[in-house]
Amino acid sequence: MSDLDILSDEEREALNELLRVPTLAPLRALVVDDDPDSRELLAEILALHGIECTTASNASTAFELLMQDRGLGLLITDLRMFPATGLDLIRQLRESERAALPIIIISGDAAVQDAIEAMHLSVVDFLLKPIDANQLLQLVRRELGIS
């Protein structure tokens, strides 16, 4: 160590070790909708704007993916699905280890009571179809920490 160094050898080694830590991959969105056209359209909108996503056709598959893949940092779900609804999925998620996951609900057919229940389940937003793509992209970017 020379007289001009402000770091000790140990501090320099610790700093070098920190700089070698790999960066984490960006979080992805999970799009859930039982209508294949809606699901793929949402996924395509996100992909065209550089946002990676995974898709699921039902609540059960979505829940399994969320439990297995920590790279999924946002859930975008349709409200009306069968056999389990988007609200059923959200309730199940809120009781799991992924309870803090941000969620956006999308619906073409929603009652006021659905929106109230969704807000009680701490969803980020409740968007009505047809979706405003710019509004969706703004929400997704914010929730995934993408500038």
Q: How are the strands of the largest sheet arranged?
A: 2-1-3-4-5
Global morphology: elongated
Would you state the CATH class? Alpha Beta
What is the CATH superfamily?
Response regulator
Mean pLDDT: 90
Q: Rg from C-alpha positions?
A: 20 Å
Helix content: 40-55%
Q: Care to count the β-strands?
A: 5
Task: Please tell me the total number of domains.
Answer: 1
Largest sheet: number of strands, sense, barrel closure: 5 strands, parallel
**CATH architecture classification name:** 3-Layer(aba) Sandwich
Instruction: Indicate the CATH topology.
Output: Rossmann fold
The string of secondary-structure elements, in order, is HEHEHEHEHEH
